[in-house]
Write the C-alpha cells for this entry.
Amino acid sequence: MNLASAHAPSLRPTRLGLALFTVYVALYVAFVGALLFPQPADDGTQTGMPYPVVGGFGLIGAAWLLAVIYAFGTKADLTVSEQGGC
Amino acid sequence: MLYSFHWSAFAVFAFFVVGVVGFSFFLGRSAKTASGYYAAHGQIPWFVNGIAFAGDYLSAASFLGICGMIAFYGFDGFLYSIGYLAGWIVALFIIAEPMKKLGKFTFADALDARFQSRPIRLVAAISTLVVSIFYLIPQMVGAGALVKPLLGIDFEYGVILVGAVVITIVVTAGMVSTTWVQFIKGGLLVLFCIGLVGGILLRGHRVTTDAGRQTIEKTKAGVLVNGKPQSVMNDVHPVGHIASLAGGKTETGPLGPIAYIQEFAGAKIVLAKKKVTPTTQGSITEFSPAVSSGRDMLAPGQSPTFAGLKSGKTSDRLNFISLMLALFAGTASLPHILIRYYTVKDAAAARKSTVVGIGAIGAFYVLTLFLGLAAMTTGVVDPTDSNMSAPLLARSFGELPFALVSAIAFTTVLGTVSGLILAASGAVAHDLMTVYLKMDLNDTQKVRAGKIAAVVVGVIGICLGMAFKGFNVTFLVGWAFNVAASANLPALTLLLFWSGTTKQGIVAGMLAGLLTSVGWILLSGDAMTNLYGLAATSSPVPFNQPAIITLPLGYLVVWGVSLATRPRMTAGVI
C-alpha cells in the first residue's frame, strides 16, 4: 500500500505551512549569509543597535509572527477538532 | 569568594527537589499502563504540552550554556538562541501533525507506520539511544556545575544526585510526571528570567573596577591561586566589568531593553583573557584583563567556535554554516521532543501546543541576550567555568534569587533529562524488545522493561557526565543536534514528502547519517583537543561541525537506495 497516496491530504503539511516555512527559511538563510561577511569595524562613531542583534531579534520575532499566522490560518481545522475537547 | 554554602539557598533548592519528587510519586498512580507511562494516555491539554515543550527544550544548554557563552563571548552565544528557536519552525510547519497521526509511543512508530519493518525499528531505536545519550551528557555536566556552588559538594556527587533524582522521577510515573515537571519548570524558568531581566534593566550599566591579573597554578601538590593554596578564602575572583560608558558617564540608571543594548554597544568592556602554559608539574592558567569594544562583542566571531568567521577561510565559514544548519534541522529530529506529540489528543492539539511552545521558547531566548550581557558586565563571572554565569548573575541580586535560579536550573536539568531517559527507555522496551525482538510482553511487563531501561540509561548518563566535566554545555549540545539532524530528518521528511521512499532507503539513510555524523564528530579538531588531548591539526576532517556534509548525505542515501529498491509496480506513483 502506498501510504502517501492513501493519506496525502492529512499527512503532508498544509499549503499555508509550506509557504510560511519557505518565508522563514529565506529569512534564516539571509541572516546566516550576512554574517559570513565582515561586520563594519567599530570606529567609535556608530550609534544604535548593532545589525547582528537586530537580525537575531528579527528572526525570533518572525518565528512568533509566522506561528501566530499559522494558528489563525488553520483555525477552522482546529475548531472542528476541538469539538471533542482537549 | 565565588562559591560558598548558604542555608537559605540550600533550603529553597531542597524544597524544589522534594516537591518535584513528591509530585512524581503522586502522579505515578496514573501511569500503570504502557499508554500512560509512555504517552500520558494522550490526554495532556495542549497549553500544558506547549509549556512542557519549553520545559523539555530549554535545557541546561539553553539556560546555563547560552548565558555563559554570551557572558564570555557576547553575540556568538546568542547565535545558538537564534538557531535553537529556528528549529521549531521545522517542527511546527512540517513535523508536528504527521508525527501525532503516525505514532503511538516512540519516534520509530512514525517512521515505521508505513512499512512495519523490523530493521527500521532497530535503526530508529539505535538512533534514539545515540542522540539521547549525546544530549544527556551536557545536561549532566550542567547539573554537576550547578550543585557544586549550591551545596558545596564536588561535581561528581552533583552528577550522581541529578541522575538519582531523575531516575526516580522517570521510574515512578513516566510521561505523566515528566510532562508536569517540564510544565512547572518551563513556566518558572521563563517567568523568573523575565523578573531577572527586569532587575537588570532597572540596574542599568555602571563602570566598576576589574580584579586584575590572576593565576591558577596546578601542581602535583595541589592548586595555587595567585601563588597561595586554593581555599574557600583564597579563590579566583569574579571577572567582567565596564571600563567606560559612552559620553563619559559612570552609570546609566534604569534603561529600556533597546537602550540597554545601545549603551552596551558604546561601552568598553573588560574581560578575562585566558592563557594556559604547560609546566613540568602541571600547568599555569593566567587570566589577564583585556579591553574590548561593546560593539565588537555584539558581532559574531569572538568565541573559538565562531572565530573562523573573521579569518575568511572557506573551511571556517563552512563550519559556521554547518552548525547553523544543524541547529535549524536538529530540533525536529530530537526523539525526546518528538515523543511529546503523542501526549496530546490529536493533530490540531499538537499544532497548537507547538505554537505555545514557540511563544515561550522565543521569549526565553530573547532574555538570554540580556542575561548574558549583564553577567559579562557585572563582575560576577567565574573565569574558569562559563556554565555558572547565570546563577552568579542572580547572586548579585541576593542569596534568594541565587537559590531560586539554581533550583530552577536544577529542575531545568531534571525536566530535560527525564524526557531524554523516557525517550531512550521507550526505544529499548517498545522498539527493541517488543517490536524488533518480538518479545511477548503484556502492558505491565512493558512498563517494567521501560523502567529498567531508564535506570540503565540514567547510569550511563551519570558516567558520561563525569567524563565530560569542564565542557561548555551548549557546545556539547551542538553535537547532539548534528547527529539528530543527520540521522533522523532525511528519513522522516522524505517519508512524508516522497511516496517513492522504501524501507531499505530509510534504513540505509539513517545509518549513513548516524555513522558519518558520529564518526566526523569523534575525528574533529574539537574532539582531538578536548577528548584525546591531541593537537587540533591532527584531525583528518576539515572542520568540526558535520551537518553540512552528513545531512545532505542522509537525503542522498535515502533517495538513492529507495530508487534502487523500489518495487516496479509502484514505480512512477508520486
Summary: Confidence is low (pLDDT under 50) at residues 1-9, 79-86 of chain A.
